[in-house]
Amino acid sequence: MSAIDLDFFRLDNQLSDEEKLSRQTVRDFVRERVNPIIAECYEQGRFPKELIPEIADLGLLGMTIPEEYGCAGVNSVVYGLTTQELEAGDSGLRSFVSVQSSLCMYPIYAFGSEEQKRKWLPEMAAGKVIGCFGLTEANSGSDPGSMRTRAKKVKDGWLLNGSKAWITNGTIADIAIVWAKTDDDTIRGFIVEKGTPGYTAPEVKHKLSLRASVTSELFFQDCLIPEESILPESKGLKSPLMCLTQARYGIAWGAIGAAISCFETAAEYAKQRVQFNKPIAAFQLTQEKLVRMYTEICKAQLLCLQIGRMKDAGQLQPAHVSMAKMNNVAIARECAQIARTILGGNGITGDYPIMRHMCNLESVYTYEGTNEVHMLVLGKHITGIEAFA
Amino acid sequence: MKIIVCLKQVPKNDSILRINDQGNWIQDRDLTYEINESDAYGLEAALQLKEKQGGEVIALSLGPARVQSVIKEALARGADRGIHLEDPAFDKLDAYGIAAVISAAAKAEGFDLLLTGLQSDDYGFAQTGVIAAELLGLPHATIVMDVQPGDGSLRVKRELENGYFQWVSMPAPAVLTIQSGINTLRYATLKGIMGAKKKEIKKLDVTALGIDKAALAPRMEFLRVYVPQKSKQTQFIEGSPAEIAASLMEKLRNEARVF
Ligand SMILES: Cc1cc2nc3c(=O)[nH]c(=O)nc-3n(C[C@H](O)[C@H](O)[C@H](O)COP(=O)(O)OP(=O)(O)OC[C@H]3O[C@@H](n4cnc5c(N)ncnc54)[C@H](O)[C@@H]3O)c2cc1C
Fold first, then answer.
1. pTM surpassing 0.90?
2. Catalytic pick from A50, A68, A368, A386?
3. Interface contact B193-A22, CB threshold 8 A
4. Per CATH, the architecture of A238-383 is what?
């Protein structure tokens, strides 16, 4: 009956009532509304779109943006804690919220005109307008500066040509935040509306990871983008990277959720499963596995709360986020693998969440800056020497 | 309609439960807390009544500083304001003492309906609401599943044994103890949680309530709390099928006393 102590370092004592309550809300929502359907969604390769209105009602979309734009205006720690709970359900659901909030609403909030903010943010917070973020291209992943998508200045606005790859939410999105090079090679952001002639967004099928999330390609063929749809304050690669820092911060927290889900499943299983007349939790080799997972999860929690507080205090640097994203996703991926072994054959089935998390985490390990890229960011932080190229 | 909802903060049911050194309660340093389950349904019933009828929902909780979190949760879900009853003299109250303090606060506030949960998940006395009603000199109904307010009166549905229900009419104001599971609890949304910060929580102590401390002296005390001892035994009955059946019947009748 007694649960495993998942707050080993009493971090809850550092959280406000509002922070704890927000986490509880999302934890309850995931338990009641997500967990019962998610394994089937995953198997069917279906994003549970029907949950969008409920997610919006909870206030999760663009939650850190101020109330005047129809958002909840919570702090970064709440963003982190709720992201963690969502990803304990499934990385696909967390990805949806990350993309909508950090990669679409954030750039409109940070680089948009007042008119754009008023037009889009309240509708996006209400889940009535879904966004996607197009930076990556088939030939431009870790090196987004090499993108080929172009926006040419014409009389009535901009003519957009090119394509984007691996775009979360693409096919279901009402608007795409598209990053393209302008005539002087500066990267700028554009709001491209669904239905714009020349714009298509076919879904990528047959994924074996993030199956409960929509991933798409975006194609732009002579798309005329009106002048009022350029994000006026977006200038250079730094702008999309700022969005990524927001999203990566959430991912660092999210990964803990996936790791905890795997760990809890394995720990419960190990106490129940009897072999050689003993619960397998009684074997030293199993205990070592549990301790390894537990230790890494507790460390990741400490790291996240600290970066959360730093973010709210305005002290957070991208390198901090790199370390947290790199470390936490890597340990979550390890936890999934270790936890799977504890469940033996049962571990490979969809009856338990571990294998689903394990497959999801392969995407999470790669997107939003691969593990290697974050390693290089930190390498540069330490040595002052860039080792990317 | 002015509704006061009493909310008790109780240990979460997935808390780590260890018996304290004195052996008379659980160790509170390991506990995390939540709103008592049936109280949460009382709150939801109150919020739904307010949505239909208009009026005000006041969330009331008695206990140390930590119980403010249940008041805040109620405010986040839609209660209009909170009352926090806190005083060192409230530390070790029994059901009578709690009811005495709650009824004093409710009386001072004035109300059309005072709701409590059917019982608390920790003590399980199921008495607080009933005693409060007696102290207030008001009608009450227990195990309430539905509330239909009329003009100065109420019709309430009560749960009886064996799947029977009972409809009762009573004058208002009244005290109702609410059954769990009677409605669908709403989530505290992030906007609600942020909005709750701006709502008032009034703190009242012994002096403010004009209560005589001596009257609160507990009439009941916990002597010992313990984990039930396992006493499972397996007996193998031998013999022919007829002998086994006869012996089994005899044991069921005289030892297990299931008939
Ligand atoms: C499910 C999913 C959803 C996604 N959603 C989005 C989205 O919504 N929007 C979006 O814009 N993008 C999205 N992406 C794209 C994602 O961000 C890219 O896949 C990622 O940036 C890596 O790019 P790549 O796949 O081209 O790999 P590459 O950049 O080709 O990398 C391949 C390997 O080479 C390594 N490598 C590359 N450069 C270096 C170097 N200098 N030193 C050492 N190693 C290096 C990488 O670390 C990696 O291991 C998504 C991807 C996936 C899988």
1. yes
2. A368
3. yes
4. Up-down Bundle (1.20)
